[in-house]
Amino acid sequence: MYADNFSNQVAIITGAGQGIGFEIARQLCINGASVILNDIDEQLAKSAASKISEHANCIALAGNAADAAFIQNMVDTAIKHFGQVTIAIANAGITLFGDFFEYKAEALQKVISLNISGSFLLTQAAAKQMRRQNNGGSILLMSSVTGHQAHKNLAAYGITKAALEMLAKTLVIELSPFNISINAIAPGATVTERTSEDENYVSTWSRITPMGKPATVEDIANAALFMVSPASRHVTGQSLIIDGGWTSVSPSPY
To answer: What is the pTM of this model?
Structure first.
């Protein structure tokens, strides 16, 4: 679908050692992009990059995607190896379930630090570089259906995801003059390595999803590629929900 659309494009993707982030990185590389692939787990990052590198240039860079110095290092590495940054995808995030009345301050800070601060700082660093390049670019934030609908024990996570969608909307004002688009995607239930640990995950979400099944990582990556491709160049400040219709009816999995 996107053959050659990403040739000469350079992307930074956080949290891409497995799952949705990995599939986005893989598809970008297959379609011609060069990628800085980040994960906090060094072995996971290296393994992921080695699987992808047969298709295109993919460099593993392990580190904390909430750390400002490391984020700048990712941008600098992209410039050193590929000469530019044209796509930034803030995929790294953490989900910490917990009852609201018992939720710990430390857990709240962890969720906010990575989900909001890390995404904000990557957006800022990438946008500064894109502004210097004076050739536009695309930024994508990773929201969630929990930013749209209440989900038990996910108050902290949900507010961070809603915040990212507002960030995408707000930054239209500041990024559009430099031809930089910024959007968010909001995945619903998705089969990944992590969710597959729950033996009831697929059956539960198949039952309550109008389309009859949870998403695959390919479903989410297909939407992500559209949002950072030339095909969506006039789309900015938007949030795209990919959930098989779940938010239209929102039955609880519990």
So the answer is: 0.96
